[in-house]
Amino acid sequence: MTTEHATGGHAGPANATEYIQHHLSHLNSAGEVVTPGSINLDTFWISLILGFVFLGMFYMASRRATAGVPGKLQNFVEWVMEMVNETVNSAFHAKSAVIAPLAITIFVWVWLMNAMDFLPVDLLPKVLSWFGVHKLRVVPTADVNHTFGMSIGVLLCIIGFSIKAKGAGGWTKELFTAPFHAHGTVATIILAPINFIFQMLELFAKPISLSLRLFGNMYAGELIFILIALLPWWAQWLLGGPWAIFHILIVTLQAFVFMALTVVYLALAVEKH
Q: Distance between CA atoms of 57 and 69, rounded to whole angstroms?
């Protein structure tokens, strides 16, 4: 099975294997040979643009908000805010002016990045090839670097919320005295290294699981769409539609899970053992 893509004098993939490799290759700042410290430019710019789309959409909804019959955009924004607020109220019982806006931002931004998977596989790469750009991956959350970056942000929030709730001294003490509590100075000193190891494992397992869960699901979805694009046109219509409908659930569920787990982790961070 072959695919013929010749745009702007640039010969495209000659067979199915090259086609898959081509669509799984990032537009990297270092060019063909990826080097430490280089940036996947496609992931960076698409996620940044979608961030501004989110801000613009919610700003427009706030400007057009009315107490009368709401429009479709206002209905959608209100539904998202109600859903996120219910999640926050059920999981996060401390007082925070940051948690709800953070949760809304995570859910909508991650959903928008996931939803890039619904675009035809060759659409944006084809358009950008006219301008000399011959590599492009359009789903930022299918890039493990991006999901790890977001999870590191969640990790920093966890540490920040912990210190704010317990103080630097209280949080440090907790690292060495939980989960195994001891009575007496000697027992506390003996258990301190074990407690610290368990605390570090728990702390770093959270962002790792967050990033790998989102990355794995979106990478698999992206790969399936690429494989479907290799099929004859009638098979693409036969399989692409049902998979896209099912993928709507995956896209939404993964955005919700990332948001909900972030709220749960921050709720745990402010609770005292």
A: 19
Tell me the domain boundaries of the chain.
Answer: 14-270
Q: Where are the beta strands (DSSP E) in the chain?
A: 6-7, 10-11
pLDDT in tens, the chain (273 residues): 334 333 334 445 568 888 888 888 999 988 777 778 889 999 999 999 999 999 999 999 888 878 777 788 888 888 999 999 999 999 998 888 899 999 999 999 999 999 999 999 989 999 998 988 888 999 999 999 999 999 999 999 999 999 999 999 999 999 998 888 777 788 888 899 999 999 999 999 999 999 999 999 999 999 999 999 888 888 888 888 888 899 999 999 999 999 999 999 999 999 875
Largest CA distance in the chain: 76
Catalytic residue annotation = 209, 213, 217
